[in-house]
Every structure is written in structure tokens, then in C-alpha cells.
Design goal:
The protein has helices at 2-17, 23-31, 73-85, 118-127, 154-178, 199-215, 244-254, 271-281, 305-316, 336-355, 359-367, 371-383, 386-396, 402-415; strands at residues 36-38, 92-96, 130-134, 182-186, 191-192, 223-228, 239-240, 257-261, 285-289, 291-293, 295-299, 323-327. By secondary structure, the chain is α/β, with parallel strands linked by helices. It has an eight-stranded parallel beta sheet. Strands 5-7 form a two-stranded antiparallel sheet. A two-stranded antiparallel ribbon has the order 10-11. Helix 5 links the parallel strand 3 and strand 4. It starts with a helix and ends in a 5-residue tail after the last helix. The structure holds L-rhamnitol and zinc ion (ZN).
């Protein structure tokens, strides 16, 4: 097996050499990219506030009840370690506030402290992970009527302002201790099922709440802020307060990042196409890579055309350091470790595929107005032996490929997950 992977890699190197592409250099570049892996695929966005916390309300939904989900910090960490061992490279872990360690106490969201996340920071240090963080403005009685930071009720708004402010502080503490700024992303579920009367009023409330929250600035060496828009959600079909225009405007005026989630736009819009425009006006951007199937369904990321084009745009922008690649999918209907591994590998594979395109020649053809050569090269790029380079990368990192990878995940299922 080893031998055949190496042989295939050598053959691939010869093919790529015809285009002046060096697969070894592509792998070196890929190795430098850290993906922010979301913890919430491991337990269906439930969190551990109470022993039986589960995703509730909030305009998002997880479907499926495949056995073996993590129900404690220990289980989630063990699962993450397993998943990470099957993903080449060094990556980040993205946590939500509901994953704090509350020691069985009822700590409401407006009471969270850095201490509740120290266990994660220590674990991250030991695992060589950097952390990112999110306030959790859903699955809570004070979010039940669908409005949080935009609620006309001042007490509700204040509660969530306090929560988000604390979450940002926690993110700063994570970044400080781990020597890498934590991205704090804010997504709120606010919206209405039916057509609202006062859109402007709700957006004004949201703006006012954000002004209070972002008045406090943290050291950018410790944390960076992002705000995430949405198009519609379950229960917010007719109107979403935090629309794209709302947050684009807010982020530009207040020096924040926008978070572009691939599931949060009209089905024919491509986030890939938004990246170059956004980067011309914003220093940095956060991506939530997901797979919407007809709606914001958060399916496991695969090598779809959309993500391939996104990866090309990421690389061709020449702004890799300014693009934070986060994953945001959750499927409860299949092995959850498998979902993490397949989804994260798919993102990495799309990036590798992008690094392996004959970019120089493509650009030259485009500049020369040689549409045929551009088209032909684009088509050839699709079938170059990229799989051999990926397999070699995994092999070099002692990660099984092909049927062996599936067996490895199934073994973990029978030895660990099925005993839960
Ligand atoms: C929801 C947003 C948000 C969440 C996570 C759990 O539509 O995409 O990013 O999925 O915060
Ligand atoms: Zn998202």
C-alpha cells in the first residue's frame, strides 16, 4: 500500500511538472492552513449546560439521532482527538459558550466566566489546538420568542448584551493564553416567522445592542470580532434582523469582520464570488463553510463545485492570512466522527486542488484574451491526478486513506461510540 501511494505520487509529480506545478510545494502551502473545526458536530449543538442540553429554537435544526453522540466534555474531547488524528495538519477548535464546564451548577449565560473555559484552554494547549469562540444566543428561554439582541424588551436585550460581552472577554482570554487571537463570532437567531411591520425598529434595536457590546475593544492580538448574517431560518422565514446588508454595513463602520456562511445566501449566490469584493473593503473575513441542501441545512461539507470555487478564490486572493476558514455543519444521522473527518478533509482537499491548478498559465491565457486556452486548462485542471497527491499527504502524516480510513472510523464506533 505504502509503496503504491508513493509510486502514484511520483507519477503525479511527472504529470504536474508538465504544467510547471510542484505538488510538494502545494503540500507545504496546504500544511500552513489552519481550519477552525467546530466542536458542535460532536453533540448536535447541544452543549453541556445541563446533562440533557439540546439544540432548541434558534432558527437552526439538527436532524437524525445516530447513536454515540458525546454527552460530556470528556467524551467530546476524546472524539475530537480521534477526529483530529485523522485530519492532516494543525488546526483550531471552535467552541460555543454552551460548552463551558459548569460543574453541575446552573450558571446562566449572563454569568459565564473565563474560568468555566479554562479546562478547554488547558486541553487545547496539550493538544496543540488554538481556540475560537462564540456566544450562544439560542437554546435558551430568553430566546424563545425569536428575538435576542433586537428584542423590543430592554431586559431581554440587556441579558444578551451581557452574555455576548462576557463571551468576547472569554475569547480574549483564550487568545492570550494560547498566543493566537481567538475569533469571536456573533450569530443571533433574531427574526420573525411572518411578515413584520417594523423592520427598521428591530434593526435599530440590534444596532443599539451591538454599539453597547463593541464599545469595549479587546487587544486584536487576543481576539478578533466577526458578525454573521443570515437569509432566513426555521421560524424566521419571513424576516431576519441581521441580514447581509445589515452586518456588512455594521462591520465596515465598526472595523469588525463579516462572517460569510455558505448556507446563508440565496441558492444561486456564491460566497466564493463575495470574497474578492469583501476583501477589498474589509481587512479580514471569517468563513463558515457548510453545505446547504435546498435550505441552510448544514450538511457535511463535500468537494462540491461551490467549495472548490471558494477554495480557488481563497488562494488566488493572495490574502490567506486575512481569511479565517471555519466549518459549520452538523449531521446527527451518521457517525459524527466520520462527519468531522469527511467534512474537514473535503475542505482541505478543495484547498489542495486549488493549489494544484495551473494558475500561471490560466492567468496568462485570460490576460491574452485567449478564451479557448483558459477553458481547456480549466477542464484539464479538473482531472489532473490530485487524489494521488492527497493520499500521499495523508500517508506522510500517518493517516489512513481509502477503505482503511472507513475501517478506522468504524472501529472507533464499535469500540467507543456504541458503548455509550
Ligand atoms: C446558524 C449559524 C451559526 C451556527 C453556529 C452553531 O445559522 O450558521 O453559525 O450554525 O453558531
Ligand atoms: Zn454559521
Amino acid at each position: 500500500m505504502t509503496n503504491s501511494i508513493e509510486k502514484a505520487y511520483q507519477a503525479a509529480q511527472d504529470v504536474y511538472a508538465q504544467y510547471g506545478i510542484d505538488p510538494a510545494a502545494a503540500l507545504e502551502q496546504l500544511e500552513k492552513i489552519a481550519i477552525s473545526i467546530h466542536c458542535w458536530q460532536g453533540d448536535d449543538v447541544g452543549g453541556f449546560e445541563t446533562p440533557d442540553s439540546e439544540l432548541a429554537g434558534g432558527g437552526i435544526q439538527v436532524t437524525g439521532n445516530y447513536p454515540g453522540k458525546a454527552t460530556s466534555h470528556q467524551q467530546l474531547r476524546t472524539d475530537l482527538e480521534k477526529a483530529a488524528s485523522l485530519i492532516p495538519g494543525h488546526h483550531r477548535l471552535n467552541l460555543h459558550a454552551i460548552y463551558g464546564e459548569f460543574q453541575g451548577k446552573k450558571i446562566d449565560r449572563d454569568q459565564i466566566e473565563p474560568a468555566h473555559y479554562q479546562g478547554w484552554i488547558d486541553w487545547a494547549k496539550a493538544q496543540n489546538f488554538k481556540l475560537d469562540f462564540n456566544a450562544t444566543c439560542f437554546s435558551h428561554p430568553k430566546a424563545d420568542d425569536g428575538l435576542t439582541l433586537s428584542s423590543p424588551n430592554a431586559a431581554i436585550r440587556d441579558f444578551w448584551i451581557e452574555h455576548v460581552s462576557r463571551a468576547r472577554k472569554i475569547a480574549a482570554e483564550m487568545g492570550k493564553q494560547l498566543y493566537s487571537p481567538a475569533v469571536h463570532n456573533l450569530w443571533i437567531p433574531d427574526g420573525t416567522k411572518d411578515v413584520p411591520v417594523d423592520r427598521m425598529g428591530l434593526r435599530q434595536f440590534l444596532k443599539q445592542s451591538l454599539d453597547t457590546i463593541y464599545q469595549t475593544r479587546h487587544d486584536k492580538g487576543h481576539m478578533k470580532d466577526a458578525v454573521e448574517s443570515k437569509l432566513f431560518g426555521i421560524g424566521s422565514e419571513s424576516f431576519v434582523v441581521g441580514s447581509h446588508e445589515f452586518y456588512m454595513g455594521y462591520a465596515l463602520k465598526n472595523d469588525l469582520m463579516v462572517c460569510l456562511d455558505t448556507g446563508h445566501f440565496h441558492p444561486t449566490e456564491l460566497v466564493a464570488d463575495k470574497l474578492s469584493s469583501t476583501l477589498l473593503f474589509c481587512d479580514e473575513v471569517l468563513l463558515h463553510v457548510s453545505r446547504p441542501v435546498r435550505w441552510d441545512s448544514d450538511h457535511v461539507v463535500i468537494m462540491s463545485d461551490e467549495i472548490k470555487i471558494l477554495a480557488e478564490e481563497i488562494i488566488r486572493s493572495n490574502r490567506l492570512d486575512n481569511i479565517h476558514i471555519g466549518l459549520d455543519f452538523f449531521d446527527a444521522s451518521i457517525n459524527r466522527i466520520g462527519a468531522w473527518v469527511v467534512g474537514t478533509q473535503a475542505m482541505l482537499k478543495c484547498l489542495l486542488l486549488a493549489f494544484l491548478q495551473p494558475y500561471k498559465q490560466l492567468l496568462e491565457a485570460e490576460r491574452n484574451n485567449d478564451g479557448f486556452t483558459r477553458l481547456a486548462l480549466q477542464e484539464q485542471g479538473r482531472t489532473l491526478p490530485f487524489g494521488s497527491v492527497w493520499d500521499y499527504y495523508c500517508h506522510k502524516n500517518n493517516i489512513p486513506t481509502g477503505p482503511e480510513l472507513i475501517t478506522e472510523i468504524k472501529n472507533y464506533e464499535s469500540q467507543v461510540l456504541s458503548k455509550r
